[in-house]
């Protein structure tokens, strides 16, 4: 959906309909945040599968992942809309080319908080999960090598 909204965004912004542009910008923002959120959930799943191998039963795990994956971005979008729906709009990059219009976040502060900071938090979480998994794999490898050394002796 992120790709579809992105590809149709410029075309739909050429109609100069403020409501349509706000909707497209909101959908683009939502699906971008949803993609980031699902990426984070994959790293959490990776962590659970490789580090917390035993006793990891989480009741209704998929339902909880779906609520987080689709719900957290929705909360961010709703907050932006509640604060000011005019944060979304049509931004033209060039007056000479009418097809350069694009519906997106118009306020830089909102962009940096709701996209860049969101991505940065997810990036840090994924990095922490990745390092933890690497350390776990390294410790398992070290233990296996020690056991095989004992068997060889």
UniProtKB/TrEMBL annotation:
Give GO terms: molecular function aspect only: G protein-coupled receptor activity
TM ranges: 20-41, 61-83, 109-137
| Keyword Glycoprotein part of the UniProt annotation | no
- Keywords, comma-separated and alphabetical: Membrane, Transmembrane, Transmembrane helix
Where in or outside the cell? Answer: Membrane
Q: Cellular component terms, GO, for this chain's entry?
A: plasma membrane
Start and end residues of each G-protein coupled receptors family 2 profile domain: 1-153
Q: Which InterPro entries match?
A: GPCR_2-like_7TM, GPCR_2_secretin-like
- What topology does it adopt in the membrane? Multi-pass membrane protein
Record's keyword annotation contains Iron-sulfur: no
- UniProt GO BP: adenylate cyclase-activating G protein-coupled receptor signaling pathway; cell surface receptor signaling pathway
Q: Superkingdom of this entry's organism?
A: Eukaryota
Protein name (record): AGRG4 protein
